[in-house]
Amino acid sequence: MRIGTSGWSYDHWAGVLYPPGLPPARRLAAYAEMFDTVELNASFYRWPKDSTFASWRDQLPDGFTMSVKAHRGLTHYRRLSAPGPWIERFEGCWRALGDRHGVLLVQLHPEQRRDDERLDFFLAKMPAWIRVAVELRHPSWNDPGVYALLENRNAAYVVMSGAGLACIPRATTDLVYVRMHGPDPESMYAGSYPPKELRRWAKLISDWDAEGKDVWLYFNNDPHGYAVRNALFLRGLLS
Questions:
Q1: Any alpha helices (H) in the chain, and if so which ranges?
Q2: Least buried of 4, 53, 127, 196, by fewest C-beta within 10 Å?
C-alpha cells in the first residue's frame, strides 16, 4: 500500500513538511524523505517535457513512485476523443520516469456523462504497460456495466472522497486507487479528515490488502497542510 499527496510544491507547506525558506527546487527531495509516492497534479494544466520527468526520476530514491494526472487537453477538451497524440506523450513520460513511474490518472470532466463506447475505445488504445486509473465524477457512470468495462480493460476505478462526489469503495483490478479531496461537504479540497474517518479508511485499506490488492491513496486537501497531516496519520494507523 502507498499513501501520499496530490502535488508536493506548496508554499503553505512551509513549517508543515518543509523547513521555512527551503527552495522550491529542493521540495521534491524533501518530500521523498517522508513519503514513497506522489501524485503529479500540475500535469493536468501543463504537460512537462520528457526531460523534466527524467530529471525528477534522477531525484527520486529507489522504490519511490510518481503517479501522473493526464492533461485536461485529453480529458476535458477532447473528452477522450482522438487520444493518439496524448498516448504518445504518456509513453514518453513513462519511459523518462523509468522504474519510478506509478499510475496514470485519467480524471473525466464532471459534466461528462456515461459513454461506454468512448471510454472503452480510449482504454483499448492505451498500452498494457501503463497502469490506468479512471476518475468518473458524473453520477451516470455509477453502474455495474461501467465497472465491468473497467475490469475487462484492467483499469482501476478511482474511489473518491469529496464534496458532491459519490464515495463507492469499488475495486475493478488488483489495484485500488483512492483520491481524498477533503471532508468538507460544501467545498472541494477543504478541511482535515477527523481521526474517526481516517480509522474507517484504514479498515477499508486493510481489507483490500487482505484480499491481495495494492492500494494507492493520495490526499488532495492541501490547504493548511491538511493533506500532509492526514497522510501521515493514516500511514501511522496502517503501520
A1: 27-32, 50-59, 72, 84-97, 116-125, 144-152, 195-210, 226-238
A2: 196
Q: Do residues 189 and 160 touch, judged by C-beta distance below 8 A?
A: no
- Which amino acid would we find at residue 74? L
- Enter the pTM of the model: 0.97
SS3 string, 141-206, reads: HCCHHHHHHHHHCCCEEEEEECCCCCCCCCCCCCEEEEEECCCCCCCCCCCCCCHHHHHHHHHHHH
* d(C-alpha 70, C-alpha 44), whole Å: 6
Q: Which CATH number does the domain housing residue 202 bear? A: 3.20.20.410
**Number of separate domains in the chain:** 1
- Domain, as residue range, for 95: 2-238
Distances, alpha carbon 215 to alpha carbons 102, 175, 185, in Å: 12, 6, 25
As beta bridge partners, residue 177 has 158, 216
Say how far apart CA 167 and CA 204 lie, in whole Å: 12
Phi then psi for residue 39, to 5 deg, are: -105, 120
pLDDT of residue 28: 97
Q: How much is the pLDDT for 70?
A: 98
